[in-house]
Each structure stands twice: as structure tokens, then as C-alpha cells.
Specification:
The protein is of the alpha/beta class. The chain is built from 15 helices and nine strands.
């Protein structure tokens, strides 16, 4: 087995590490990531949907050769889904077998049925287990979708990298995982959790950086088309839309246009493919007719 890739020893090395996975990080983000890795602190990323928060966890996992463990948050997420639960069916079978063999020692039976073999490990508990490849990357994605009660439960894990199971004991990580938390800021995350993390707001990239991202992620795209795509998206972000496109949508749209063999933006090709870029009908309806032509003209003229 190959030795795990070591944690980068500088900000520049972090930029290069992520770039090898196609993630072109701006220096402030690379700096915060570097510090989180070196200090062993969770990294909390906030920003609009589609700006690349989740992708940084994937890039780190691939670059460092670590297992990626992802916990997708949602309303109603509880300990049984996120941390652990007991295999009650297997426990019941063990009890019935004990009764059938005449084993009536209740104290021993009570101890036996709460052994590790009956423990179903969910993402947060699995992230605390040793891994030959090194501590895993734990992605707690879209934390703002979870309830505040679950957010409070995370405090023990993020402070001490441990989970307390009443019937079993305390499980501690021999080597703390690399923790990435993301939020689309649909609600504010409590200060108590933020204090345990290093924080970075991930913004939309500049036109130059977004162009570099598109050319990196969409190989074979025509140079002129990639410039017009990025310029068009940058113009859209100044429009009064319900949801402006993120970097993920820019990449999807650029890929779609490449599949359509487009060489330049025209009202026809843009109108036909807007569903790859805008995800709300009101926004698509707004970008029709004269508005669409003006936007294309502005995008093309800026790159002329």
C-alpha cells in the first residue's frame, strides 16, 4: 500500500495540491485550508450554492489519498442517521438464542447485546475510526439544512473528535479526521460551532479565474466560446434573477455547449441550452427575446 500523501507544508504547496485535482483555489481560500490542515481544525465554508464548497473536500480527499466520508444534511437529520444506531433485529435474535439455551444471566446478556458487533456505524462514527490511508476527510455538507439540535450535537465531535454512546462508551479518534463543513447560509450557524472552526466565505470567482476553471474542467472547449460563456455568466450575476448561476452551472453549460458543437454564442444556441445554466422557469422566461440578445451582445463585446 502506498504511503499517504503528507499534509502540504506551505500555502503555495496547498494551491498546487488542489490544482492537481482541477481545483483552482484563490490564495485566501488556500491559506485557510492550509491552516486548517496544519492546525487540525475543522474548515467551515459558507457561500452561495454552486461556488465549489463541496468540491474542495473531494479535491483534498483525492489529492491526499484519504477516504471521503460525506454526511449530507437535511431537515430532521438525527443521531441514528448521522452517528450510530443499534441493530435491534440482531440484538433480538441474540436474546432469543440466549433464552433458548437457558442463559438467564441478564447482566451478561445486557452487556453482550451492546457489543460493537451490533453497532451500526453511520458517517460521523466511521470518520473516527483508524484508516491505513490516514485520517479520512469528513464532509458535513449543507449544515444549514439540519436542525439546530443536530448542530449542537456536533460540538463534542468538533471539539474533542469523540462520540459518547451511553450503552457502549466513548469512541475517540486516534487521529482526528480532516473536517470540512459547508453552508449555503439559508440560516445562521451558531457561534459555538463557528468558534471550533476556521472560517472562509467562498465567493463567485473573478472572470479570469472562472475562465481558467472552465478551460480546466471542460477540455476541448473552443477558446472564443469559453471566453464568451464566462462573460455571459458574469453579466447574468448582475441581473435581478431568482438564482444566479454558480461555477457548477457555468461548467455544466460550457459542457452542454461543447456537446452541441457550438463555436460562439448565438440567441438560438443560448436559448435552447439555458436549462443547463438557469434552474428556475421565471429566470429562463426573463432571459428571452430582446433581453437575451442584449445580454449576449454585452458578453460578446466585452470579449471582443
Amino acid at each position: 500500500m502506498n504511503a499517504p500523501t503528507p499534509i502540504p507544508d506551505s500555502v503555495d504547496a496547498t494551491v498546487e495540491l488542489l490544482a492537481r485535482q482541477g481545483y483552482l483555489a484563490e490564495r485566501p481560500l488556500a491559506t485557510t485550508t492550509f491552516l486548517a490542515l496544519r492546525m487540525g481544525r475543522p474548515l467551515f465554508l459558507e457561500g452561495e450554492a454552486g461556488v465549489g464548497k463541496t468540491e474542495i473536500a473531494k479535491a483534498l480527499s483525492a489529492a491526499l489519498g484519504r477516504t471521503l466520508i460525506r454526511l449530507q444534511c437535511y431537515e430532521g437529520l438525527d443521531v441514528a442517521s448521522a452517528v450510530y444506531e443499534w441493530n435491534s433485529a440482531a440484538q433480538m435474535i441474540a436474546i432469543r438464542l440466549a433464552e433458548a439455551t437457558g442463559d438467564t444471566d441478564r447482566d451478561r446478556l445486557s452487556h453482550d447485546i451492546f457489543a460493537e458487533q451490533y453497532l451500526i456505524k453511520r458517517p460521523l462514527l466511521r470518520a473516527l475510526e483508524p484508516d491505513p490511508a490516514g485520517a479520512p476527510v469528513l464532509l458535513i455538507d449543507e449544515l444549514d439544512r439540519a436542525d439546530e439540535a443536530f448542530e449542537a450535537y456536533l460540538l463534542e465531535i468538533l471539539s474533542d473528535f469523540q462520540v459518547t454512546i451511553p450503552e457502549f462508551g466513548t469512541v475517540r479518534a486516534a487521529q482526528p479526521p480532516i473536517v470540512i463543513l459547508t453552508s449555503n447560509r439559508t440560516r445562521e450557524i451558531h457561534d459555538a460551532l463557528k468558534r471550533r472552526c476556521l472560517y472562509h466565505w467562498v465567493d463567485y470567482p473573478s472572470a479570469e479565474r472562472e475562465l481558467a476553471i472552465v478551460r480546466s474542467r471542460v477540455p476541448g472547449i473552443a477558446a472564443k466560446l469559453s471566453e464568451q460563456v464566462v462573460s455571459f455568466v458574469q453579466v447574468l450575476r448582475d441581473q435581478d434573477l431568482f438564482k444566479v448561476p454558480g461555477v457548477a452551472e457555468t461548467i455544466d453549460w460550457a459542457t452542454a455547449l461543447t456537446q452541441l458543437d457550438a463555436r460562439t454564442l448565438t440567441p438560438q444556441v443560448v436559448g435552447d441550452s439555458l436549462g443547463a445554466l438557469l434552474k428556475y422557469q421565471d429566470d429562463i422566461a426573463r432571459m428571452q427575446g430582446e433581453t437575451l440578445q442584449k445580454t449576449i451582445k454585452q458578453a460578446v463585446s466585452e470579449r471582443a
